[in-house]
Task: inverse folding
């Protein structure tokens, strides 16, 4: 495996130079290597891009990363944000008429990261407005609706697919409410996170068991990792710490079993990040050999362009070079390098 700093630099250059981010700041959902073209711009992926580029800026001090992050953040506030409806549509290039709870939370966290880095009120103000809309529009009947039809903001009927039904994975986006409570002092944001946390703790045990098809289980491992990430602000609570530790062990077992058939780069990266957080907080001692293997597996998905592949099926690369896979892998490898150097720092607000 090349030196981790080399991998991170190549991934960062891909995000900046490959064209995955358009001049206006929006970031495409993925690059199709077999077709030689990008998918459409995604508001969610652009939100992830803000957080990723700011992570790279804080790590390297290179102004190009800050510039890229701010172009992405301003795309979100000035182009993607629908002030009349008070939400972020799923995509804007095709006039998409849907809004996703999960996407909105990722975008809010990206905008708050941009505000912390610059102090520009525009980012904070849109994030707060979007957070209020998430509270008002997506919650009902003791659950968080995953998708709304626009413009009426009508909840869509739930489906079997994990991303189209409520679930523990939504806790990752509910972290936006917690961060907003810290910024604004508004108690309703704190209550929103706490409600999402309790629902996630009640439902997470059955989440991975809802599928039998190994390929679909691997997809759910990615989503289950979002639950573990959403727990990180509450790991001082025994119930949350137990769920976190048990979840890491379950993820590791399923990943090893399914990987020969279907492996996702982001699952390796998310599992490694969770291990590193658990170890640093003294909740779950790091399994060094397992972590080293997961780091090597994540790194193996990097392409010659610097971006990371989404996954492999039966050992064959899938033709998607993915910004979020790239983001998760580069952060996991950076934190793994820090751990090896004895310099691991807790970066919960910067967790991509």
Result:
């Amino acid at each position: 495996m090349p030196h981790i700093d080399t991998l991170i630099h190549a991934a960062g250059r891909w995000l900046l130079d490959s064209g995955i981010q358009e001049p206006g700041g929006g970031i495409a959902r993925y690059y199709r290597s077999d077709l030689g073209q990008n998918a459409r711009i995604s508001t969610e992926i652009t939100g992830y891009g803000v957080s990723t580029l700011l992570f790279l800026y804080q790590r390297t001090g290179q102004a190009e990363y800050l510039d890229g992050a701010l172009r992405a953040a301003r795309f979100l506030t000035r182009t993607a944000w629908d002030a009349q409806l008070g939400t972020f549509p799923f995509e804007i290039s095709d006039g998409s008429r849907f809004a996703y709870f999960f996407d909105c939370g990722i975008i809010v966290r990206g905008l708050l990261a941009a505000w912390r880095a610059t102090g520009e009120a525009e980012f904070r103000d849109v994030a707060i407005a979007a957070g209020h809309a998430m509270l008002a529009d997506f919650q009902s009947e003791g659950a968080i609706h995953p998708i709304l039809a626009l413009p009426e903001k009508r909840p869509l009927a739930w489906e079997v697919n994990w991303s189209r039904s409520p679930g523990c994975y939504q806790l990752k986006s509910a972290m936006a409410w917690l961060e907003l409570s810290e910024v604004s002092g508004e108690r309703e944001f704190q209550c929103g996170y706490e409600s999402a946390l309790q629902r996630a703790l009640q439902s997470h045990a059955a989440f991975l068991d809802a599928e039998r098809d190994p390929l679909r289980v691997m997809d759910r491992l990615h989503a289950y990792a979002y639950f573990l990430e959403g727990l990180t602000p509450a790991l001082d609570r025994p119930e949350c710490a137990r769920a976190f530790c048990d979840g890491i062990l379950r993820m590791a077992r399923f990943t090893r079993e399914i990987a020969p058939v279907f492996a996702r780069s982001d699952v390796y990266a998310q599992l490694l990040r969770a291990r590193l957080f658990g170890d640093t907080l003294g909740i779950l001692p790091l399994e060094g050999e397992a972590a080293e293997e997961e780091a090597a597996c994540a790194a193996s998905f990097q392409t010659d362009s610097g971006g990371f592949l989404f996954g492999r099926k039966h050992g064959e690369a899938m033709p998607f070079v993915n910004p979020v896979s790239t983001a998760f892998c580069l952060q996991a490898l950076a934190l793994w390098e820090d751990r090896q150097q004895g310099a691991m720092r807790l970066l919960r607000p910067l967790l991509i």
